[in-house]
């Protein structure tokens, strides 16, 4: 069986294409067999696809699960008693949330990998950390929302973790001011979800006409651009406007999903998302064939982490473009890509929709 | 009575104030002449020629077809329209509104038609043609009784229009019907509702297998039109294919293979969202269906799930964009216990239609309102969904 410990000390962006392929062919062969043996629904899907997991094959031929299936089915590859945490996605209104079952191992690996990936960007030293969110999202420690899990995961990277928003999502300027006065001499790690940072931090500061001296801050944010796209805020706008209210210069976006917590894709200095050795991306066309470089397609996400649930290969509902592999100008190895947003909802034809269209 | 909404959110594409003080007799000659002129107008319009759905509509309106309908209609009583009919038509089918209008008109009514919110070129083409025909003063009386409006979903507007209409047609789905039904109409008014329905197809395996390839191609093209033209979302598009006969694997293989070729030939455009939906459904089926026997996938545009046994709730398993279930049986009887009132259209090939009719009537089935050959699933008409729309939207003057 593939063991993550065998690569946990390898630098996250240090394997070239052929090294990574060799690793993934072995690891995915093992992971797929593991889930096939331990998760009955997963086994049924592979059987229906006539895929025999005991035959080793190219990682690109290993089936993926559609991300929505985690909303519709309970999928786990461990016994109930081994589940220590269940993570749920926020889920847009009316939808069932995703349910991800974690055992001790998978949960631990998520944290380890997250720390590895982030540290390679911001250094190993623990920094004082400001969270642009409210403490209330962490209420229930057994039942984690994706937001709560994200905050807790990232909190491992900091000390003096301070929450900038009160329970009503209002920015507590006093707390923030006290925090940066206390850590004037140090770099500061700021973490938040993209939309929250924009809505409750940037906009509030702007409204108050307040400038914070956070020049020594490093912001890491993720969670998707959907809500900001509606407001025509793109990554560049986000960075420049934010820098105007708090002087922050180091801003890193990340891409990831609750179904593959830990093995996130960080944005590099050149503006591309990167797959580390713990994760990979493939883009696919409408017929699920593999896209060429620079061709937009639906994003398939691979992760070496999921062992307690069959989430090692997932077809997202996001559209993206892979721009290259091993040759990003930032110097990191691995594929680098950008995300375009959600795949367009098909214009539903048929006579069952006279009302819902706005 | 007038029904003009002076509201900035309502855009009148055609007509305005409605004068419904006088009504027509169903299939009145004036109405038939008008539709024939509309047909001519559309058929000579160059832009229209590139829209097959507009052309289909134009042919439906032509004199010969309306005359045939009139003959089939034959009422033993004198009849007149009800008054003003308010039509809520599908937002995602470009020409359905025009058929709905014709049904309301042929019943003898004044009509307010809510057209799709989306700016389909077909809507403009048809409205323009109608406006053109209205230039002929002979049709003044119809013109005074016609309005085409567009508005974004707005309960207040729908409420105002419902308040004093004499008939209301709602083209589904169930959610829309339930919402609009909350909005009151006058006590003496009639509603024609098209709810969500389920449709399936029966094919005689032996006869299909006996077809020459060219005939099979024609049949399969018909099936393609029944399903892929509307991404399988029309209520009359089949989701299930029942093979009549035994050991029909050869027939099945030929059929699905030919269909996959037709899909290519017709250049059916698969979307990411459609591909994703189908894959999710496939995974759910693989997990949940205990009687799943086999899965055939042809290049993502065509999934076929072979079932060993028909679950009684098979009507809840609906595909889209080319996702089908198939089941083989020697005896139709096995279907009689599962047909409920959501079953609408049965498309058939190679079975005697009288036999199918007897199957429905003799077994007193709760559902199946239409039995039509493969290829005609989407052909809409005045008899639809189990209603005679013209009779539903007209009243009888009883004479003793």
User: In terms of per-residue confidence, which ranges of chain A show pLDDT below 50 for 5 or more consecutive residues?
Assistant: 351-358
Strand order of the largest sheet of chain B: 10-11-12-9-8-13-14
- Gap between N and C termini of chain B, in Å? 31 Å
The end-to-end distance of chain A, rounded to whole angstroms, is 52 Å
Tell me, briefly, the overall form of chain B.
Answer: globular
Structural class of chain A: alpha/beta
Helix content of chain B: 25-40%
Name of the CATH class of the domain at 110-255 in chain A: Alpha Beta
CATH architecture of the largest domain in chain B: 3-Layer(aba) Sandwich
- Which two chains form the greatest contact, residue counts included? A-B, 37 and 51 residues
* Rg measurement of chain A, Å: 21 Å
Largest sheet of chain B: 7 strands, mixed
Mean pLDDT of chain A: 90
- The CATH architecture of the domain at 110-255 in chain A is 3-Layer(aba) Sandwich
Q: Secondary-structure element order of chain A, as H and E?
A: HHEHEEHEEHEHEHEHHEEEEEEE
